[in-house]
Amino acid sequence: MANKNTSQKRELTRAALISATHELVLRRGYEKISIQDITEVAQVGLGTFYNYFQTKQLAFEAVLEDIQGRFNDSLNLIRQPLKDPATIIAVSLQYSLTQAQDNRDWTTFVEFTGLTDQRVLHQDAEQLLLDIQRGAKGGRFKVNDPTLTHSLIIGMIRHVSREIRRGNLARSAMPETTRHVLRMLGLPDQVAKALTQAPMSPVAVPRRTEAVATILAVSA
Amino acid sequence: MANKNTSQKRELTRAALISATHELVLRRGYEKISIQDITEVAQVGLGTFYNYFQTKQLAFEAVLEDIQGRFNDSLNLIRQPLKDPATIIAVSLQYSLTQAQDNRDWTTFVEFTGLTDQRVLHQDAEQLLLDIQRGAKGGRFKVNDPTLTHSLIIGMIRHVSREIRRGNLARSAMPETTRHVLRMLGLPDQVAKALTQAPMSPVAVPRRTEAVATILAVSA
Amino acid sequence: MANKNTSQKRELTRAALISATHELVLRRGYEKISIQDITEVAQVGLGTFYNYFQTKQLAFEAVLEDIQGRFNDSLNLIRQPLKDPATIIAVSLQYSLTQAQDNRDWTTFVEFTGLTDQRVLHQDAEQLLLDIQRGAKGGRFKVNDPTLTHSLIIGMIRHVSREIRRGNLARSAMPETTRHVLRMLGLPDQVAKALTQAPMSPVAVPRRTEAVATILAVSA
Amino acid sequence: MANKNTSQKRELTRAALISATHELVLRRGYEKISIQDITEVAQVGLGTFYNYFQTKQLAFEAVLEDIQGRFNDSLNLIRQPLKDPATIIAVSLQYSLTQAQDNRDWTTFVEFTGLTDQRVLHQDAEQLLLDIQRGAKGGRFKVNDPTLTHSLIIGMIRHVSREIRRGNLARSAMPETTRHVLRMLGLPDQVAKALTQAPMSPVAVPRRTEAVATILAVSA
DNA sequence: CATGAATGAGGATTCATTCAT
DNA sequence: TATGAATGAATCCTCATTCAT
Q1: Measured between CB atoms, which of B155, B163, B168 is closest to A156?
Q2: pLDDT one-digit tens code per residue, C48-87
Q3: Which domains does chain B have, with CATH numbers?
């Protein structure tokens, strides 16, 4: 009992610190955040920070993992019912491109972090490679070198995402990119076009506050 | 006369500062460089730095421009005799991909600077767009939306460059990428393959020290 | 308990910083004091300064307030038993003029600070205005415009204080000034003279070190 | 001839430096002015400054002297035709108080310099003492201690000037102050009132640019 | 565990002044 | 005389981290 209360409190404090870090990054960007800032927002003593994170960098990474985790969970929820490799890739790309624009948590965080290209919101890279390989093996895709193709696609997604965000490309570039990718995988343009136009499932990424609520609920 | 002497000295000091910055980044990475470090290496008074760069960031950018400038000069030298849009693009991509791996000045600098993906050594982005548009207008390429195609290509080059550097892709990915791009531009695979295999002109980017030497020679 | 200990320590450090600032101004004047100097004298880490004062100027002002506070406390002690407006003003002026000469803390600090005339140790300006208004309302003083009269008096006190300090006027200028002021307030010269010659109460401003001692005593 | 040209050029450069210093103080206040700023505005090489002023402080003082000199010249022009000591004092005070408000050169300079009270625009202090003594000797004034009276008056003028500038007193405080002073000198209120209301001579302080023009004209 | 006072290395920046040309 | 490049002492300020309570 005492144990439970204790560990519950730990989770709470930790969540508060992560949340505070997140909020500050959204507000002020990566560079100008001190640990004091974080503990102030988290309503916690300065020294307390070090009971949870050995270094500031680790706190930032915790936030990133938090966001990425929620993104992947959502995407998997969408992919689950799908079977056809082409459809899976089409939907995944669409979702990735859309979220990279609209998930404010993620875009702002990444934008300000300066890590812009280290991490761009897209389907787990590894997963995409598996998707391609599966499609190739099943004869749905025509690719000689899945690894290279995989790299080419990743490159396109990242760059297009950035360019849209910067206003250099219109949002219509999102389905167009997906269509190009599908063609590059060997699908006839007709099919590519059809897959691209299929409506998106309405599943959304949970808000940050909900995530925190979840932590609390779980720890209760 | 006095003027000439003065501006000659200015160039010299500036070159020394840029060179020192460059060297330090190669040695220690971006974060850990103080302005004192730079002026020490440049054998120059601390205050002198501020006679040339208002901020450290501007010094870094000067180095980047320096390198990029020399890269572009070399590439233009190679492109000059070429007429066919497809050949021009093939050669440019090949050169860009190759240099991104082999131009140690550039790769290391960018690598350590942390800007890794903001700036990848490749053909002037604007120029590539023009190349595409010219090929499209002349009927050599089949592209609906040159701007999007341009973005997709840029994304591929950047990412592939990085992946090769990281060892995730073999060097053979370079010609393969070019081939994919040419196909994406609507060329038959045979042609794409042929253009990709053409031997590269042996023109090389001048070393940094030579560039400095040039300044001195000119000002003499 | 912990709280009490903490805030006691805070007071102590703060007192040390103020005391150090004070001492340095007395020794070297305003311009030549760096924050490092202060923390060195205070036997405290450099960074500690910033836990107490956001800026050097604020530290100086804290010293001034400290001194002025003690001055006002003393003056109020003297004024307390008095009723007659004329007597109150006479005593207040006398005390102000005297202290401006003899309170070494104050004079030296102000002298070296270069603010010489911004702040001269004298009765709270607001209080003087009230004194005048009260005397005018009660019919003891004859003044048309209390605000102007107030300004004229303040100006005289400040300047006379300075001039005495500089040796341009004798100490006898102090009662003489008071006498002039009382006459300006409409009192007959005989009364003015009489009030001016009344002996001063012997209450003195506590020394700085005693003040610090008090803090410690109270917090014990 | 060559000599004359040379020294003319010297005067010109010196005037330019003083003018630049003046202008900068008006614009940015005392603290934040570097010698580079001054030489830039003066359109002169940095090193040139040191051919004219050994130190920055000396340049500032040159400006002050310049302004004070012109002020005194104007005042003397007004005083010249007057004979009666009371009139002379009345006119001088009026002029001093007025200029302290309206001579933007002076007020701004002094305001920003932070020396506010070291130098307040008023009739040469020495001259005022002579005025008082002359009036006392001639029986026009009734003062026991001219030196003290002199100090009291100076104090009043300075403080009132400041208070008007700060908006704590109305402009009507100017003639009122003069009237109080005259009464303090022993004049009947009727006379004081009359003298205070006499119209001011229209002589004005020359503008700064004219002064510079004068230098040039003289040096021609 | 929580706290927050103390710390001081580290870095950016300014600017009066010198001096060679 | 005029110039402006070079200089480096001086200073302010930040902030991650420690540690005693």
Answers
A1: B155
A2: 999 999 888 888 888 888 888 888 888 899 999 999 999 9
A3: 1-60+207-220 (1.10.357.10), 82-200 (1.10.357.10)
